[in-house]
Amino acid sequence: MITCVLNGHSNINEVQTAAQIFFPNERFSFIGSVPDFGWTVVSEKKIDGYRSEIFYDGVSKSVFFYAPDHSEITEKRVVILAVFYALKKIFNADTPWGALTGIRPTKLIRQWLAKNEADEDIISKLVNVYRCRFDKADAALQTARKENEISVKNGLIGKSSAAVYIGVPYCPSRCEYCSFTVRGTVYSDKKIISYIDALQIEINKMSKQLSGINISSVYIGGGTPTVPSDDEFERLLSLAQKNFCASKTEFTVEAGRPDSISENKLMIMKKYGVNRISVNPQTLNDRTLERIGRAHSANDFYRAFESARNCGFDNINSDVIAGLPGETDEDIVKTMDGLIKMQPDSITVHTLAIKRASRFNESCVYNDNAGIGSMLQSAHAACRQAGMVPYYLYRQKNCAGNLENIGFAKPGFECLYNVGMMSDIQTVYGFGAGAVTKLVDGDFIERKYNVKNPDIYIKKMIGEDD
Ligand code: SF4
Predict the structure, then answer these.
(1) According to the model, what pLDDT value does residue 367 have?
(2) Closest CA to 381 of 427, 325, 322
(3) Per-residue pLDDT, 364
(4) 245-256: b or e for each residue (b if 16 or more CB lie within 10 Å)?
(5) In the predicted model, is pLDDT for residue 362 greater than 70?
(6) Whose Cα sits closest to atom 7 in ligand 1?
(7) Which one of 177, 224, 288 would you pick to mutate in the ligand 1 pocket, going by the greatest count of ligand atoms within 8 A of its CB?
(8) Would you give the DSSP letter of residue 232?
(9) Residue 160, number of CB atoms within 10 A of its CB
């Protein structure tokens, strides 16, 4: 447990987020004075900046005062920088993203690009003020530029354009690292029929409001959207296509788990105009797949991927995760070799994040941060060698080694949904249990959350329709 003491301000999240860089997987408590045991982070507001002091067993170990030298550094960022620098003095840990906390590092960079700041000035700020490593600063700048290019080229900016997300919160089994709203194996065909009935009600209610808006992308994610029976899967796709898709709409189904992909499912997707799918191995090491509860083998992935190509899918994404328990650099190199041989059109390289609600967290399986940086580098190098460039980037809490997730794509195969969603550029209408509608109007963002529990979602939708 890490103790925090705040004086003269109430920026709890910022203090905790900065401290989490050095104390991952720890719990935090906020009290009024410094105790005489354990680590304590004190953050104090001064007239012209913030002062942080770090104590261990009640003894002061480090002090740092940070005063912003230009107005664009917001008060919240000053709090973070003061805590970060004070802790950095004690733990000279490798912090690849430095004090750049937050899910979307490219958002800040796009603000600088909008002011026509030069690349070297942006890199200098990231490296010297935020203490980002040069390779991360460079990747973030490249990605921010790509996000701008894609959103302008495809008209993602502005109120007349939006994306649609439809969630199916069921999976064939539960991955050990998963913290999403999934029902695991406890669903039944009857339950899924009711769930799609509920989706139909929610979509019908909203679709009139969306007329006149250009839906640039529709993304069916999960969970595992390919879990329903063929008939129900067809009903789901028909619903999405009829209500949201025009001839140029990007229509993605996250087929995800190779064990849920059949030729019938692929044919149904073709019939309803799905033009992008994800087939995700996460790793091609069978022992790891078993350890993480994925209930499929590497060969299942190869078979599913090949069937998708044979069915005519010419835009296939695959996700991998670096830092899975027990894996080494050698494993990720093997996974990337196997994956690249299949010639996917895009690859998202995730860093394992163990969240509170996951089984790994319950059984205290944490990331082994050693080597995670070089695993990511190997994966990124393989993507670049395959002709892909980074086009979206985001970070999550509890990412191993405080690292990131990067989507790479061959030119022309960048996913519009991912860009619009992760860059906060575009309004996203979310349907289904746990889905979030994000209304974007310039810098103003409003989020509306659907209830997470699928059973309550079904009751709510069907109840409201009666
Ligand atoms: S496939 Fe995705 S949503 Fe389903 S259990 Fe695994 S991580 Fe969770």
Answers:
(1) 54
(2) 322
(3) 55
(4) beeebbbbbbbb
(5) no
(6) 178
(7) 224
(8) H
(9) 10
Q: Which amino acid is at 296?
A: H
CATH classification number, 155-460, choose in 1.10.760.10, 3.40.640.10, 3.40.50.720, 3.80.30.20: 3.80.30.20
Residue 282 is classified by DSSP as B
Q: What's the token pair of residue 162?
A: 């939006």
Q: What is the pLDDT of residue 354?
A: 66
Cα 376 from chain centroid (whole Å): 16
**Between residues 219 and 403, the one the model is more confident about:** 219
CA nearest ligand 1 atom 3, residue? 223
Token pair recorded at residue 163:
């994306």
Q: In this predicted structure, what is the pLDDT of residue 445? A: 93
What separation in Å is there between the alpha carbon of 255 and the centre of ligand 1?
11
- The answer to whether the CB of 182 is under 6 A from ligand 1 is yes
For the CA of 223, the nearest atom of ligand 1: 3
CA of 324 to the centre of ligand 1 (A): 14
Digit-coded pLDDT (tens) for 97-137: 998 888 888 998 999 999 999 999 999 999 998 999 999 99
User: Ligand 1 test: best mutation among 178, 179, 352, most atoms within 8 Å of CB?
Assistant: 178
Specify the CATH class of 1-92 in words: alpha beta
Task: Assign 65 a pLDDT band (cuts: 50, 70, 90).
Answer: very high
CA-nearest residue for atom 2, ligand 1, is 223
pLDDT tens digits, one per residue of 363-377: 555 555 667 888 999
pTM assigned to the model: 0.88
CA distance 81 to 63: 12
pLDDT tens for each residue of 416-447 = 999 999 989 899 999 999 999 999 998 899 99
With CA atoms as reference, report the closest residue to 13 among 30, 1, 25, 26: 30
CA distance 105 to 4: 25
Domain boundaries, the chain: 1-92, 94-153, 155-460
222: pLDDT strictly greater than 90: no
Q: Ligand 1 center to residue 222 CA distance, Å?
A: 7
- The rounded Å distance from CA 227 to ligand 1 centre is 12
- Specify the ligand 1 atom closest to the Cα of 173: 5
